[in-house]
C-alpha cells in the first residue's frame, strides 16, 4: 500500500524537478492518473499561486518504476492566474506532456446547479473487502490496495451482466484519506477521473477480456477543494466506443453533495496479453 502524498512527492526547484514512481500504483504499468498527479504537483511547485484550476495531459510512453525528471515552464502569468507546461521524461524518453492553469482566490459570480446522482450513503454500503475473497484481492493489481471502495450496485466482476457503460462507486484513499496541500487534494480527483473510465467502458461486455485500453489523455477541471472530505464519489461514463477509441467523462463529488471536479479523456484499445 502506498501513501498518495509521499508517492507523488517531488523535489527540486527553478523549473527542474524529480520524482520516483512507486510500484504500489501499478495497474498496466504506472497508473496514468498517478503519473499525472506527479505532474500536477510539479506545476503547483513552480507556480506562485495557491490552487489548480485545470490540468490536461497526453500520455506518451509507459514509464518504468524509477526516477523521472520534470521540466516546468511558465507560459503566461499574472497576479491571478498562471499557465504552465510540464514535460516528464525518463532517461530522455518523453513520458507525459501537460498543461495546467494555476490560480489565486478571486471574486466573481457564484451559483451551483450541480446535482449529485441519487446513491446510497456510504454507511449503508459494504466495503469491497467483504465482497471479494482475500485470495482474489491478493492476486489483483497493487494499485487497488491504495483505495478503500464501497460499491453501489455490486456484482462480481466475472459474473456481471451486460449493463450501461456507467461506473459509480465511493472511494477513500488509504492509509491517509485527506491532504491539506491543495495540489494533492485536487490530484485525488484527477486520479479517479483517469482510472474509472475503463471500468465504465467494460460494463456492456461482461465476458470480454480481449482488450485493455490505456489512457491517451486526461483532462480535469477543479471546481473546489475539499480537504475535509474523506470519501469521494466517482460518477464515470463511457458513452462512446468506436474505431479503437473510447471516450469518457467523470464527475467527482463529496459525501455532502459538493461537485469537486469534472473531466474526461480518451482511451486507446489494445489487444490484451491474456486474451
Tell me what the structure shows.
With 275 residues, the chain is an alpha+beta fold. The chain has six helices and 14 strands. It has helices at residues 4-7, 32-46, 128-131, 134-138, 182-195, 197-202; strands at 11-13, 16-20, 51-59, 67-77, 81-90, 93-103, 147-151, 166-173, 211-212, 217-222, 232-242, 245-254, 259-268, 270-271.
Task: List descriptors.
twelve-stranded antiparallel sheet, 14 strands, 37% strand
Rounded average pLDDT: 93
Annotation field: number of helices: 6
Report on the biggest sheet. 12 strands, antiparallel
Q: Order of strands across the widest beta sheet? A: 1-2-4-5-6-3-10-13-12-11-8-7
How would you describe the shape? Answer: globular
How far is the N terminus from the C terminus?
28 Å
Elements, N to C (H/E): HEEHEEEEHHEEHHEEEEEE
The helicity comes to: 10-25%
Strand tally: 14
Low-confidence stretches: none
Structural class, by secondary structure, is alpha+beta
Q: Report the radius of gyration as a whole number of Å.
A: 18 Å
- What percent strand? 35-45%
Per-chain topology:
Elements: H1 4-7, E1 11-13, E2 16-20, H2 32-46, E3 51-59, E4 67-77, E5 81-90, E6 93-103, H3 128-131, H4 134-138, E7 147-151, E8 166-173, H5 182-195, H6 197-202, E9 211-212, E10 217-222, E11 232-242, E12 245-254, E13 259-268, E14 270-271
Antiparallel strand pairs: 1-2, 2-4, 3-6, 3-10, 4-5, 5-6, 7-8, 8-11, 9-14, 10-13, 11-12, 12-13
